[in-house]
User: Fold this.
Amino acid sequence: MISKPVLAATLLTLAALGFALHTGWLLTRLWILALPVFAAAFAVVLALFCLAVWRAARDPRRWPVVATVVLALAGLGGGVFLHADAEARAWTRFWVERPAFTAAATTPVSGEYYGAELPGPLCFVSANCKVAVIGTSGGQPVRFVPDWIGIPDDAIGYGHFTGTPEAGPYDGFGMDLCPRMELADGWWWLGPCR
Assistant:
């Protein structure tokens, strides 16, 4: 039978990593309130992990304490790492949510600057629930799904290319973006040009 503190630590680890994978979306939505929300979320997660370790330590068996501590380190350390390293977060998020990105690659686009609305179930893929065309590569449109959108402009995110992408730059809503990391199926992470 699984220990309740281990189960709680497992769920908390998944929640912390999920939160960290979507920091771009949260920054876009919360803007100036993002920093206090991130700090409060970290404090709550830390307190809940401490509670889970304390509860696990009351169990006469040793494995619940070890498992809970390992999960706490994975949840806190992994969350901080993913929050701090945009490319690691982009790579991890793409592979976790790959089916949604595949669906976004076939979503019709419009001529609007910020793009066309994604269907409701795909909104979590994009910071603004839209897919835009930010230029062409090899004569084909480059689809862009923003991971973060600045206020009032600039964005970084995922670009879908047909074939090998040209070096760029592409218009990330005011920021010059270049392909920085190949993901799969024509998807690339687009970051500021170096």
